[in-house]
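User: tokens in, sequence out, please.
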């Protein structure tokens, strides 16, 4: 997670504090901010003047006069269209491509389907073409591009911009210098930062900026796809990366090494294998027709995890049995994560959000029985309110924070 950084001087520090307050609270007057962040009115006024000159603040009319009937104060608001970010999320099925404003709100979105066997060069070509197209589209608005986020599946080294390995696109190979290749394909005119990172780790920024983890300093997001499970871990306000950028690969924590379902990594009983669509559909097909009174078409080759989760939320008996089974593995997996990391909040993202109250309540109940049962664990477990754009929103939140922390000169 982005730290507050090390401002070069007091002016920058004050400017960042004022801007942050305006971004969070909307239109404010000098007096509002002065009392909220404990800076003198003279100092806040100076910062306002400087931010108005740079284009980051806009006039927002006049506020209400004081109880004593004083002059109506001038209000100002953050100019969220001062610049824009481009975020591109390569998922196992498609590229979700968006532009966002400086409040990490999506201003334009398009989706480009990807074939399972797509080549690395074609994906890089597609991403570069999309970036150029977005830049041309924005050229007339005067908004400046502040940065680009590329969100990838699999293992990523964000410090080097390298895709270490992705099981969804194994044909790309290992240790792919993704950032360097994209920059080369883009050519000149794109000197802004390009941040390439793993989807789960970027999604913590989405939960913090736009989701339910605002203000949390210790939290974990867990994202489940049809095939694949990962986490982003924030401890003491900082995103955990690890020695070789493996932190968050919880899908391959072993939960049942002897009898567990085979995982795509070659082991048995990995967390993601035990909660995968492959395993649940296999279990569903073992149910005898009519045995359970289910409405699920368990023999349909197109049966998806989505269908099972949705059926469970409607009380389908077979779907409930399957989700109950999955919940028992989540309880072990999340319980282990809690004992190692001690978060205040665990956010469930992805497909299991559709399983509704039954699944969430099972997880919450299960937390009482994990290690040290006599010690009350105050950790909250909640569903994410963000949809499939959580990756690009996370990218936008990261890029914007970096822009104000490291690039913009106040
Ligand atoms: Zn595995």
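Assistant: Sequence out:
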């Amino acid at each position: 997670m982005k730290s507050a950084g090390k401002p070069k001087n007091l002016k920058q520090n004050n400017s960042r504090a004022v801007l942050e307050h305006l971004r969070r609270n909307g239109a404010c007057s000098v007096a509002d901010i002065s009392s909220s962040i404990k800076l003198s009115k003279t100092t806040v006024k100076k910062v306002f003047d400087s931010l108005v000159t740079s284009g980051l603040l806009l006039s927002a009319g006049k506020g209400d006069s004081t109880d004593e009937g004083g002059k109506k104060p001038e209000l100002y608001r953050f100019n969220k269209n001062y610049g824009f970010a481009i975020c591109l999320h390569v998922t196992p099925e498609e590229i979700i491509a968006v532009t966002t404003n400086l409040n990490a709100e999506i201003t334009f979105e398009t989706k480009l389907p990807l074939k399972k066997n797509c080549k690395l060069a074609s994906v890089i070509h597609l991403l570069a073409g999309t970036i150029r197209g977005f830049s041309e589209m924005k050229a007339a608005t005067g908004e400046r591009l502040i940065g680009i986020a590329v969100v990838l599946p699999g293992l990523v080294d964000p410090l080097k911009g390298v895709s270490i390995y992705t099981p969804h696109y194994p044909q790309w190979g290992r240790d792919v210098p993704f950032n360097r290749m994209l920059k080369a394909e883009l050519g000149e005119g794109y000197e802004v930062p390009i941040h390439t990172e793993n989807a789960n780790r970027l999604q913590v920024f989405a939960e913090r900026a736009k989701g339910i983890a605002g203000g949390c300093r210790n939290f974990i997001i867990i994202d489940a796809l049809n095939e694949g499970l990962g986490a982003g871990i924030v401890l003491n306000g900082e995103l955990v990366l690890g020695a070789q950028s493996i932190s968050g690969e919880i899908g391959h924590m072993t939960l049942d090494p002897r009898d567990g379902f085979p995982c795509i990594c070659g082991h048995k009983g990995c967390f993601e294998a035990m909660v995968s669509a492959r395993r649940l559909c296999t279990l569903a097909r073992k149910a005898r027709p009519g045995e359970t009174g289910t409405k699920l078409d368990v023999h349909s080759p197109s049966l998806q995890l989505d269908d099972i989760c949705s059926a469970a939320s409607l009380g389908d008996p077979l779907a409930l049995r399957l989700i109950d089974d999955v919940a028992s593995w989540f309880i072990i997996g999340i319980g282990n994560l809690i004992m190692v990391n001690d978060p205040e909040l665990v956010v469930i993202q992805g497909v299991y959000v559709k399983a509704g109250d039954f699944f969430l309540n099972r997880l919450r109940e299960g937390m009482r029985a994990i290690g040290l049962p006599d010690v009350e664990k105050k950790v909250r477990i909640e569903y994410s309110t963000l949809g499939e754009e959580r990756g690009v929103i996370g990218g936008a939140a990261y890029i914007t924070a970096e822009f104000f922390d490291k690039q913009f000169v106040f």
